[in-house]
User: Fold this.
Amino acid sequence: QVQLVESGGGSVQAGGSLRLSCRASGRTFRSYGIGWFRQAPGKERMFVATISSSGSSTYYADSVKGRFTISRDTAKNTVYLQMNSLKPEDTAVYYCAKDTRGYGSTQFLHYDYWGQGTQVTVSS
Assistant:
C-alpha cells in the first residue's frame, strides 16, 4: 500500500509561483512514476505533468509547458511541481498519483494510488 500526501497549495496572484510537494510512504518509491493532475470546479480531472521512476523522463500538458517543472527527490520520497507564471486558469485542486508502469503516463488508467489533493487559487 502506498500513501501520497500533497502539500504546498495556496492563494497567489497571477504571475506568482507555488511549489507543490507529493510525499510518498513506503520503500518502493524508486520503482514508480508520479503524475500530477488537476480538477477545476465543474470540470474533469486533467493531466498536468508526469515523471518516470528514475526522474530521467518528464512530460507536460501543453497548457503548462515552459511554466511548470516536475522533479523528484528519492532521498525524501517526494515529487515536486514547481509552478511559475501562474494564471487564473491554473486554479484547481491538484492531485498526485502513483503510476503502475514506472515511466509515467498521461492516462488515468495507469495510476492506482491518489493523494487527497491540494487547492491552488490564482487571482487576477
